[in-house]
Specification:
The complex is a heterotrimer.
Chain A: E1 16-17, H1 27-39, E2 43-47, E3 55-56, E4 60-62, H2 68-81, E5 88-94, H3 95-100, H4 103-111, E6 117-122, E7 148-149, E8 152-153, H5 162-167, E9 173-178, H6 182-194, E10 199-204, H7 208-211, H8 218-227, E11 234-237, E12 241-244, H9 255-258, H10 269-292
Helix pairs in contact in A: 1-6, 2-4
Chain B: E1 2-9, H1 14-27, E2 31-36, E3 46-54, E4 69-72, E5 91-96, E6 110-115, H2 117-124, H3 135-142, H4 147-157, H5 160-176, E7 178-182, E8 212-216, H6 226-230, E9 236-239, E10 244-247, H7 257-261, E11 267-271
Parallel strand pairs in B: 1-4, 4-5, 5-6
Antiparallel strand pairs in B: 1-3, 2-3, 6-7, 8-11, 9-10
Helix pairs in contact in B: 1-4, 2-5, 3-5, 4-5
Chain C: H1 3-13, E1 18-21, H2 28-39, E2 46-49, H3 53-66, E3 70-74, H4 76-81, H5 83-91, E4 97-102, H6 113-116, E5 124-127, H7 131-145, E6 154-159, H8 175-181, E7 200-201, H9 213-240, E8 249-252, E9 259-263, H10 266-280, E10 285-290, E11 292-294, H11 298-307, E12 310-315, H12 325-334, E13 342-347, H13 357-373, E14 380-382
Parallel strand pairs in C: 1-2, 1-3, 3-4, 4-6, 5-6, 9-10, 9-12, 12-13, 13-14
Antiparallel strand pairs in C: 5-11, 8-10
The chains are: A alpha/beta, B alpha/beta, C alpha/beta.
The structure holds thiamine diphosphate and iron/sulfur cluster (2 copies).
One iron/sulfur cluster binds at residues 22-23, 26, 28, 51-52, 123, 127, 207-210 of chain A.
C-alpha cells in the first residue's frame, strides 16, 4: 500500500511541457501533470484518442482507441525482449478508453497480469467528442446523449464500478485517486512504480465544460466528491487487501457535490435523496472492508 | 457575395454567432453558409468561424480567405493585427473593445468600428458571452442585414427569456457602436499569435485565453503551495528561496483555480483593462 | 511438414522475439505450434496469447515499436477484426510480418477476399503457393520489411486447408546461415526515455503543414518494396539456393507462348500442371504467378504484354459490384501500352471452390479462342 507523503515531499520537477491545449481549469490536465511528475523520466507514455491534457517530456506512443491494453502489453514485452525492463510502460487513457471501448483489451491485459501501469483520467464522459455518456457517467448526469426531457432524467444507470472490476482480476494493484488530493495521488503513483505486474489508478478529473461549472471550481468539486463519499479514495491489492485512504468522521451531504454542477441541476429532491442513500450504503461497506483490511471478492 | 470572418475564443459563441448571421440572412430570403474552423474547440482557446451571404446558393465550400468584414468577439484578440489579415481593401473590422475607433492600433486600408460588447454582455446577460451582443453593432455598421432578422434568428437559437435578454444586448450594441471610420494607422504591428488553436499539443502563449488574470499578493501568502500544486498549466511557479509563488503569464489561461484554492485569498482574479 | 508448421518454423529461424495470435481456423495450428515452441523453450521469444485479433495486431505493433522482431497471424474474420490497427501498424511504418491463412468472407474455405479487403491499410501484400514458399517468404519478408529504406509491414498470404493443413516436404535452412543472412532487427532508440524528447508516435496530432505528405511518403515507401524485394530474392538464392521468379512474379513455362494465365497462391501450382499438359498438346499457354499484389509488378506486366496476344486473369476474390481486383489492376497497368493484349476475367476458387487442372485447361482454351478470333466474346467467366 502507498505511503503518505506531505506537500513538501512532492517533487518540484515538472514532466509536463506547458501550456497545453486543454480547456481552462481542465481536471485531466492536472491529473496528467501530477501523475507524470511522480512517474519521473524513465517511462514511455501510451495514449489513445481522448481530449488533450498535458503533453509530457516522455516519449509517447499511441494507437487505436480500443487498443490501449494491447499496446501496453506489446511495449512491455518488447522492452523485455530488448533487455530494457527498467523502463515502465504507462498508459494514460480516458474513461472511454478504460471503461468502454478499451475495456476488453485492458481486462485481458489484467488477466494476463502484464507488467504495465494504467492511469485513467476519469472525466465521466467522452469529452473529446463533446460530452457523450460513457460507462463512467454517474446516474442522473446529463450529457449530450442523455438530455433531460419528458422521457429522460439524464443517465439512467449507475457508474460502472471499474476499480472493483479490475480488482476482481486479482491484479497486484488497483487504486482510486482525485486531483483534489495530490499527495494521495502521488503517493499511489510512487507505490505503483515499486511493484510489478498489472497496476491501475483511476483519477477522478472534473471537466468544467462537460460537468458544466465555472473552471475555478475544478478542485472544489473534486474535493467535495471525495468528502461526500461519491468518489472514495482507496487501494486494493491482489483483489483482496483493502485500504480506505480518506476517512472523514462524517461524510458531507452529496448536495455539496451535486449542486455546483449544472449537469445535475434538474435533479429532484427525491432523486438527490436516492443518490444520498446509495452513497451512504456503499460507504458503509467500504468502511467495513477497511476495518477488515480486505474485500470479499 | 459578402464574406465574413469571426474571431473569438472557445465558449464565447463565435460559432453560434456565425450561425445566427447565416440564419438571419436566410430569413431575408438570401442564401448563406456558416463554417466553423476545423478542429476541436477548447474552452478559452482562440478560434475562427466564417459566414458567406449571397443572393444565390453558395457553392464554394472552403474557408473564407479574404473577408469583407472581420468581427472580433474578444477584446484581447482585437489587439492582434492578425484579425485584419487579408481583409479586402475598404472592408470593415468590427471590434469588441472599450476603445474608440480612433484609438485602435490596427493598420491598413479598411474601416474600423468598435463596441464594448463585454460590458454590455456582463450588464445585460450577467456573463461575458459576447457573441450576440456584437451583432447589433454589425447591423448598424454594415447594413448587411436587418435588426429584425437578427432578432428572429436569435429566437431560434435561444427560446424564451434567454432570447429576450440576448435581443436586449443586440439592441444596446446597435445603439452604442462607434464608427466606422477609416483606420487611422497605416500599417499595424504584427504580433505573432495563433488565432486558431485547434487540436492537440503544446502552445507558446495562452495569454489571449484569459478574461481574468490572477495577481498574487505575496504579503498575504502563507506559503502553503496550494496554488502551485493545483495549477493545471504549471503557470504558478514556486520560488524556493522566497517560499512564494510567481506566475508565468504566458502559461496562464485564467481558469481561476489558484485564486479559488488559496486558503487566505492571496490571489485575486482581475479583469485586465484593454 | 504442413503449411502452418512451415510458418511457425520460419518464426523460429527468424528468431522472432515477440509473437501474438488468436486462434481461428485455418490459422489455429500456428498458434498452437508457437505455444508449444514457447513451452519447450525452442528459442528465446515471448508468445502473447491474447483475447482477440485486434489485440494481437496491437501487441505486435507495440513490441515492434520498441524494436523487437514480431510475428502475428490470422485468417478471414480475424483479419477483418484487425483492420483498424492494421492501418496504424502501416502508418507507423512498423516492420511487422503477418501470415494470413486465407479464409473466405463466405465460409471457412479459402479465397483471397480476406487479404484483398485490406488493400488500404498500407502493408505489402504477398501471395504464396506452397509450404516451402511459405517458410522462405516469411524469412524474406523480415529482410524486406526491416530494411531502412522500407519499414513497411508485410502480409504473407497462403490458402487455408490445401496449404495450411496439407503435408509436403519442406527443406529447413540451416539456422546459422539464417542468422547470418537475417541479423537481428535494430531497436529504434527514439521511443526509449534515455534522452528527454518530445517524440510522439502513431497518433494523428494534426498540425502537419501539408496533411497529404504522410500519405505520399507511405505510398512511395511501398512502391520501393519492388526493388528491395528483388535484391533480397537474389541474396536469398545466393545463400539458400532457391528463388521464386524475380520476387514480384514467377513466370512458368513462358517461353514462346501467346497466352499467359495470371494466378496467385495454391491454384498457381495447379495451373503449373495444367500449363505443362497444355503445352504438351501444343497449346501456347504459360503461367505468370503473381507473388506481390501490393506493390503491383507494373513494369513486369507492361514488358510481358508486348510479347503476348492475350492474358487470362484468374481472380480468387471479387469486390461485389466492382469486380476482380487483379483483373482490374492489370487492365489499368496496360492502359498506357501502345499494343495491348486481349484480357479475360475468370472468377475461380471463390468461397473455397476447388480449382482443378481441367478448369485451367478450359481457361486456356477460352483464351486461345479469343486470340484466334481476335476478340473477347465473353469478358467475364465464372469457372
Ligand atoms: C474507434 C473509434 N471510435 C470513436 C472515436 C472517436 N473518439 C475519439 S476520442 C473519443 C472519446 C474519448 O473519451 P474518453 O476516453 O472518455 O476521453 P476524454 O475525451 O473524455 O478525455 C471518441 C468517441 C475514435 N477515435 N475511434
Ligand atoms: S473538455 Fe473537459 S476534459 Fe476535455 S480538455 Fe476540456 S476540460 Fe479537459
Ligand atoms: S488562473 Fe489557472 S492557469 Fe492561471 S495561474 Fe491560476 S490556476 Fe494556473
Amino acid at each position: 500500500m502507498s505511503e503518505r507523503i506531505t506537500r513538501a515531499q512532492i517533487p518540484m520537477e515538472e514532466m509536463g511541457i506547458t501550456p497545453g491545449s486543454a480547456c481552462q481549469g481542465c481536471g485531466a490536465a492536472l491529473a496528467a501533470r501530477l501523475a507524470f511528475k511522480a512517474l519521473g523520466p524513465n517511462v514511455i507514455r501510451h495514449g489513445v484518442p481522448c481530449c488533450p491534457d498535458t503533453v509530457t517530456k516522455t516519449p509517447q506512443i499511441g494507437t487505436v482507441f480500443e487498443g490501449g491494453g494491447a499496446l501496453l502489453t506489446g511495449t512491455s514485452r518488447g522492452l523485455k525482449a530488448i533487455g530494457r525492463e527498467d523502463v515502465l510502460a504507462v498508459g494514460f487513457f480516458g474513461d472511454g478508453g478504460t471503461y468502454d471501448i478499451g475495456f476488453q483489451g485492458l481486462s485481458a491485459a489484467a488477466e494476463r497480469n502484464e507488467n504495465i501501469l494504467v492511469i485513467t483520467k476519469d472525466n465521466e464522459a467522452y469529452m473529446n467528442t463533446g460530452n457523450q455518456r460513457s460507462g463512467a457517467t454517474p446516474k442522473y448526469a446529463t450529457t449530450s446523449t442523455n438530455p433531460v426531457g419528458p422521457k429522460s432524467r439524464g443517465k439512467e444507470q449507475p457508474k460502472k464500478n471499474i476499480p472493483f472490476i479490475f480488482a476482481a482480476h486479482y491484479v497486484p494493484y488497483v487504486a482510486t485517486a482525485s486531483v483534489a488530493f495530490p499527495e494521495d495521488l502521488i503517493a499511489k503513483v510512487n507505490y505503483a512504480k515499486t511493484i510489478t505486474g498489472f497496476r491501475i489508478i483511476i483519477i477522478q478529473s472534473p471537466c468544467p465544460v462537460g460537468w458544466r461549472f465555472e473552471p475555478e471550481k475544478t478542485i472544489e468539486i473534486a474535493r467535495a466528491g471525495v468528502q461526500a463519499g461519491i468518489w472514495p479514495l482507496f487501494e486494493i491489492q491482489n483483489g483482496h487487501d483493502f485500504k480506505l485512504n480518506y476517512k472523514p468522521k462524517e461524510l458531507k451531504p452529496v448536495t455539496e457535490y451535486l449542486k455546483p454542477q449544472a449537469r445535475f441541476r434538474h435533479m429532484t429532491e427525491a432523486e438527490i435523496a436516492e443518490v444520498q442513500e446509495d452513497t451512504t450504503s456503499k460507504w458503509q461497506s467500504l468502511i467495513q472492508s477497511d476495518e477488515m483490511g480486505k474485500v470479499l471478492i | 457575395m459578402i464574406e465574413i470572418r469571426l474571431h473569438g475564443r472557445g465558449g464565447q459563441g463565435a460559432v453560434t454567432a456565425s450561425r445566427i448571421l447565416a440564419t438571419a440572412a436566410y430569413e431575408e430570403g438570401q442564401y448563406s453558409q456558416a463554417i466553423p474552423m476545423y478542429g476541436t474547440e477548447r474552452r478559452g482557446a482562440p478560434l475562427t468561424a466564417f459566414v458567406r451571404i449571397d443572393n444565390q446558393r453558395v457553392r464554394e465550400r472552403m474557408l473564407v480567405h479574404e473577408p469583407d468584414i472581420s468581427i472580433v468577439l474578444d477584446p484581447l484578440i482585437a489587439k492582434q493585427q492578425g484579425v485584419v489579415e487579408s481583409l479586402k481593401a475598404g472592408g470593415i473590422v468590427l471590434l469588441n473593445t472599450a476603445m474608440a475607433p480612433e484609438e485602435v492600433k490596427l493598420g491598413g486600408d479598411f474601416k474600423v468600428a468598435t463596441v464594448d460588447a463585454t460590458t454590455i454582455a456582463l450588464e445585460v446577460l450577467g456573463r461575458p458571452i459576447t457573441n450576440t451582443a456584437i451583432l447589433g453593432a454589425f447591423v448598424k455598421v454594415t447594413g448587411a442585414l436587418k435588426l429584425e432578422s437578427i432578432e428572429k434568428a436569435i429566437k431560434k437559437y435561444f427560446p424564451g427569456r434567454l432570447g429576450d435578454m440576448n435581443i436586449a444586448a443586440v439592441r444596446r450594441s446597435y445603439e452604442e457602436v462607434k464608427g466606422p471610420i477609416q483606420a487611422v494607422v497605416k500599417s499595424g504591428v504584427q504580433e505573432k499569435m495563433d488565432l486558431n488553436v485547434g487540436g492537440y499539443g503544446v502552445l507558446k502563449d495562452v495569454s489571449s485565453w484569459r478574461v481574468f488574470t490572477p495577481e498574487v499578493d505575496v504579503d498575504k501568502c502563507i506559503s502553503c503551495k496550494a496554488c502551485w500544486i493545483f495549477c493545471p498549466e504549471t503557470a504558478i511557479q514556486w520560488d524556493e528561496a522566497k517560499k512564494k509563488p510567481y506566475i508565468e503569464y504566458n502559461k496562464c489561461k485564467g481558469c481561476g483555480v489558484c485564486a479559488n484554492e488559496c486558503p487566505v485569498k492571496a490571489i485575486e482574479m482581475v479583469r485586465v483593462e484593454v | 511438414m504442413v503449411g502452418n508448421k512451415a510458418a511457425a518454423t520460419a518464426c523460429k529461424l527468424a528468431r522472432v522475439q515477440v509473437a501474438s495470435a488468436f486462434p481461428i481456423t485455418p490459422q489455429t495450428t500456428i498458434t498452437q505450434y508457437l505455444s508449444e515452441m514457447h513451452a519447450n523453450a525452442e528459442w528465446d521469444f515471448d508468445f502473447v496469447n491474447v483475447e482477440g485479433e485486434l489485440s494481437s495486431q496491437v501487441v505486435v505493433q507495440g513490441a515492434s515499436r520498441i524494436g523487437a522482431r514480431t510475428f502475428t497471424c490470422t485468417s478471414g474474420p480475424g483479419l477483418l477484426y484487425m483492420h483498424h490497427p492494421m492501418q496504424t501498424t502501416g502508418s507507423g511504418r512498423l516492420p511487422v510480418v503477418m501470415a494470413v491463412v486465407h479464409r473466405s468472407y463466405k465460409g471457412m474455405q479459402p479465397d483471397h477476399s480476406d487479404l484483398m479487403s485490406q488493400e488500404w491499410t498500407g502493408w505489402g501484400h504477398w501471395y504464396v503457393e506452397h509450404a516451402q514458399e511459405v517458410l522462405d517468404s516469411i524469412l524474406m519478408a523480415y529482410k524486406v520489411a526491416e530494411d531502412p529504406r522500407i519499414r513497411i509491414p508485410i502480409a504473407v498470404g497462403y490458402d487455408g486447408y490445401v496449404l495450411s493443413y496439407t503435408a509436403e516436404p519442406v527443406e529447413i535452412p540451416d539456422q546459422a546461415l539464417v542468422d547470418e543472412w537475417l541479423p537481428p532487427n535494430k531497436p529504434i532508440p527514439e521511443v526509449l526515455p534515455d534522452k528527454v524528447n518530445k517524440a510522439t508516435f502513431g497518433r494523428g496530432f494534426g498540425g502537419e503543414a501539408d496533411p497529404q505528405v504522410p500519405w505520399k511518403v507511405h505510398h512511395d515507401a511501398i512502391l520501393k518494396i519492388e526493388e528491395v524485394h528483388q535484391e533480397v530474392m537474389d541474396s536469398f538464392e545466393k545463400t539458400f539456393g532457391r528463388r521464386y521468379g524475380n520476387a514480384m512474379i514467377e513466370p512458368y513455362m513462358m517461353d514462346d507462348v501467346d497466352v499467359a494465365i495470371i494466378a496467385m497462391g495454391t491454384i498457381a501450382g495447379t495451373c503449373k500442371a495444367a500449363v505443362e499438359k497444355m503445352q504438351k498438346e501444343g497449346k501456347k499457354v504459360g503461367l505468370i504467378k503473381l507473388r506481390s499484389y501490393i506493390p503491383f509488378p507494373v513494369k513486369d506486366f507492361q514488358e510481358w504484354s508486348k510479347k503476348l496476344d492475350a492474358i487470362a486473369v484468374v481472380d480468387r476474390s471479387i469486390c461485389p459490384g466492382k469486380g476482380g481486383p487483379v483483373y482490374q489492376r492489370l487492365r489499368e497497368t496496360l492502359y498506357d501500352m501502345k499494343k495491348r493484349p486481349l484480357t479475360l476475367q475468370f472468377h475461380a476458387g471463390l468461397g473455397g471452390k476447388e480449382v482443378r487442372v481441367r478448369d485451367f485447361e478450359l481457361i486456356g482454351d477460352k483464351t486461345l479462342k479469343a486470340v484466334k478470333s481476335k476478340k473477347v466474346e465473353e469478358p467475364v467467366t465464372w469457372v
